[in-house]
Amino acid sequence: MRPAHIALAALVAALWGVNFVVIEVGLDHFPPLLFSALRFLVAALPAVFFVGRPKVAWKWVIGVGLALGVGKFGLLFTGMDAGMPAGLSSLVLQVQAVFTVLFAALALGERPGRLRVLGMTVALGGIVVAAVDEGASGPLFGFVLVVAAAACWGVSNVLTRKASAPDALNFMVWVSVVPVLPLLALSLLFEGPEADLAALRALDWGGAGAILYVAWVTTIFGFGAWGYLLRRYPASSVAPFSLLVPVFGMSSAALLLGEPVGPLRWCAAALLVSGVALASFAGRGRPGSPLPLDSVPTQSGSGHSVPPSSAGLLSRTMASIGATCSSGSRSTRACSSSRKVLMHQRYGNSGSRESL
């Protein structure tokens, strides 16, 4: 990865880590379900009017919106409001990688290898240590809610993979539309209209800033930048930066909120991050190495996928033309014409890889 893109990936991880501190600030101003609803409302509007129509089927937009917006963030905000510390929440939430592997095995038939199972076991060991630490010093109910939020995140990861959205920002904006009304309904039901109205009447710069940060900085910018990096580099090069999120989360919570980080919590962090790393990257190619062209689908200018076998055939044909042209056995005009035809077949009208 280029140094500027490495810095961008680290910046996104830092913003996502500090996000847990900002959530604590927001929860001082709003009931948790109302805060979550406002987050997605501000993330969706006015962006939804500028990103175009969804580029995937509505069932995936609705499914991810419910799992991610209502499930993950509704439970996360409620768990933190129940007393789960911000730093520990940023750590425990990373167990989503284990849930993703489990749900992918059940729904997609992906059988985890031995290293991945080992990673899941180590990560779950970290969760047990974190539970012991939290049970001794804080409410266990909030801890359970954050673990449930991680499970919902795992469900949304599998649905997102099935959706295969070509535009991450477009997908995230439309996903943000879905949970607004369900979260508002749940807030009215469980938190009450009086509490919601009181929070809205007392809105100040601190509460407004918290909403803008979690909506625009971590959702729109964060997911947009992350999607940009994933389009340019293999996932095995980008995804490891997500392991920095609990590092920034725990550090910022300790510095800004004064949260204590004892030996048990550091032990839980080491086990969970190590286990998530194994579960996430076991069996993948060497990080940083580009994927072979034959192994990934490309997209034509009309938006239709070109099968991997066809992409490989086109690559080999272009290599053959290059060898023939370099030997001087074909005219320059003929070589140029052949290359243009093949580039059009592979990348569409733009004739360049940048159109992908």
Would you mind describing this structure in some detail?
The protein is mostly helical and 356 residues long. It has 16 helices and two strands. A hairpin with a 5-residue loop joins strand 1 and strand 2. Helix 8 packs antiparallel against helix 11. The C terminus is likely disordered.
Question: What features would you highlight for this structure?
Answer:
356 residues; two-stranded antiparallel ribbon; 16 helices; 1% strand; globular
The strand order across the widest sheet is 1-2
Binned, the helix content reads over 70%
Distance between the termini: 18 Å
Structural class: mainly alpha
Order of helices and strands: HHHHHHHHHHHHHHEEHH
If you compute it from the alpha carbons, what radius of gyration comes out, rounded to the nearest whole angstrom?
Answer: 23 Å
Shape: globular
Largest sheet: 2 strands, antiparallel
Query: Helix segment count?
Result: 16
Number of DSSP strands?
2
Any low-confidence stretches, pLDDT <50, length ≥5? 285-318, 345-356
**Amount of beta strand:** under 5%
* Integer average pLDDT: 79
Helix-strand layout with pairing:
Elements: H1 3-27, H2 32-44, H3 58-81, H4 86-92, H5 96-108, H6 114-137, H7 140-163, H8 168-177, H9 180-190, H10 193-201, H11 205-232, H12 235-238, H13 245-256, H14 263-281, E1 298-299, E2 305-306, H15 308-326, H16 332-347
Give a quick summary of the entry.
The protein is mostly helical. It contains 16 helices and two strands. Helices cover 72% and strands 1% of the residues.
